[in-house]
Specification:
- With about 200 residues, the protein is an alpha/beta fold.
- The protein contains seven helices and nine strands; from the N terminus they run E-E-E-H-E-H-E-H-E-H-E-E-H-H-E-H.
- It is globular.
Length: about 200
């Protein structure tokens, strides 16, 4: 059964420390007068049944966007897998789809294309890819693998690609939309995005 919109909870990953941006909370940095996360939500929220925002700081600010905010259960800013875990734990739908808070140009058909590939291959995870480059934080994941992820994290695992390698994964080509996966990690990248 494929993951139609109503079967998917979207998780916006905003739990990092923004070290390359000078330690600021990237999701709340302005692009064209609005926070990055607002641009992400504009494109992502219509693709899913509901949205959770994974954040470990400024949770009140994130809550102002009208979606539930969930913090990592794993301490120490443990990375996107901890955010996925927090979102999967709070989600109630059969699938979750993750996107980062700093990719304001993400494809408006991301979930549909990931879901089609997931269904065709009966995969646990469908991951976006451009060229030879997978984008592991743009992924549709079966919520049924939550216990497996919990065990992986409890054992000290943190690398998202290592965890994916233990599951059935299909990579989904988005070569027609390479620029959509551009993320904004630095002040220079933010300035370049303003110009586009």
């Amino acid at each position: 059964m494929s993951a139609d919109r109503d079967a998917v909870t979207g998780i916006v990953l905003a739990g990092g420390q923004g070290r390359r941006m000078g330690g600021v909370d990237k999701g709340l940095v302005d692009l064209d007068g609005r926070p990055l996360v607002a641009h992400v939500l504009d494109r992502f929220a219509p693709q899913v049944g509901d949205v959770l925002i994974n954040a470990n700081q400024n949770t009140g600010r994130y809550a102002e966007f009208g979606h539930a905010v969930v913090a990592d259960a794993v301490g120490g800013f443990a990375g996107p897998l901890a955010g996925l875990h927090a979102g999967m734990t709070a989600a109630t739908r059969r699938f979750v789809c993750t996107v980062p808070c700093d990719s304001p140009f993400l494809p408006v058909d991301l979930v549909a294309r990931l879901a089609a590939a997931q269904a065709a291959h009966d995969a646990d995870v469908a991951v976006a890819k451009t060229g030879a480059q997978p984008h592991p934080v743009f992924a549709l994941v079966r919520r049924a693998v939550l216990p497996h992820l919990t065990d992986f994290l409890a054992g000290g695992g943190r690398k998202i690609d290592v965890w994916y390698s233990t599951l059935s994964v299909v990579e989904v080509a988005f070569d027609d939309a390479e620029a959509a996966f551009r993320n904004i990690n630095t002040r220079d990248e933010l300035a370049a995005a303003h110009r586009d």
